[in-house]
Amino acid sequence: MTTPRNPDDREPWEGSGWQEPAHLAGDDQGRDDQTSDEPNFADRRKRPRDEDLSSEAWRPAGWDLPAATPQRDDEPYDGPPRSEPPVRGPAAGGEPSWAPPATGPGTTAPAEPARGGLFGSRRNRDPEMARAFTPETDPLGAQSWALQHGWTVSDGTGPEDAGLAELIASAPVRPGKEARAASVLRGRAGSLELVAFDIAYPLGRGLVPKYAVTAAPLLGSVPGLRLSPARFWKHRTGGLVPVPSGDEGFDARWMLLAAEDSPQARRLAQDPAVHGLLLGTDDGDEFWTASGHVCAVRPDGHRPQLLEHHARLLTAIVGALAAGL
User: Could you state, in chain order, the average pLDDT of each consecutive group of 10 residues for the chain (325 residues)?
Assistant: First the structure.
């Protein structure tokens, strides 16, 4: 039997007007105090859904699959147009349903399929990219040019080629012990007798050219000179002194070093023809004197354009050095 509790036994919050919040109240508590039209989510969690879950009302549209009845040919079809399956074998008229590819004149050949490789298929090589990455070295082209102009061709092992080793050893590019002369060309360009060759290195059973050298003999005494682009690092320049030209534009791009500040060196440094030719280049050549020759070197293999380029530059340099002789 339940009896009213003693007022002293009440909880501290009882009798003080406290009520459970409306959103936590049950069906019989907090209903009168609600002034909002919002649903009580707590009640919805406590009570089962009003709808019958087994009925069809709760299912969303498209939930059920259509009836599994095949589409008959005699029934109307409102869907998208059907694609006809490919015909395999002779057609209705007895003719084959395919035609052999045309291979006669005027037809375009099909694209070459990608070739397979060790790590998968490879794309066909683009001819423009292949031409862009082709080395500029063209020994056969240089030899053909030399023969057309009456020059002689040697492989660098003849007795007349023995003196080329001294030119290679004195080159400012520090060629190394394995360097040797290859594809030696001798001939006349204007008033100069030139010898052109490649500084090559052994690779397997052949030689790989790395530097192109063109040399012209100079009569009389040849002073020790080094004419290089100012941006190049200078090797083995001990004992050489700079010879300024007086032209700030030329001295900013080119530097002349000589064993002594002689009249020949000053004429070369101040020659207007030499200035005009060198300032019109890409500053990719170096010049030096050794063994009675004035030499030009470039990190490339010889080709006809380079032969003509070196011939023009050496003609101007030799002319400036020989002016006072």
Answer: 56 61 57 54 54 58 66 59 56 52 54 54 59 55 91 92 93 91 94 95 91 92 89 80 92 93 92 95 94 94 93 95 74
Distance CA 148, CA 222 (A): 32
Alpha-carbon distances of 249 from 35, 127, 197, 254, 266, rounded to whole Å? 92, 42, 32, 9, 17
Q: What is the pTM of this model?
A: 0.58
Q: Is 112 helix (H, G, I), strand (E, B) or coil?
A: coil
Neighbouring C-alpha atoms within 13 Å toward the C-beta of 44: 7
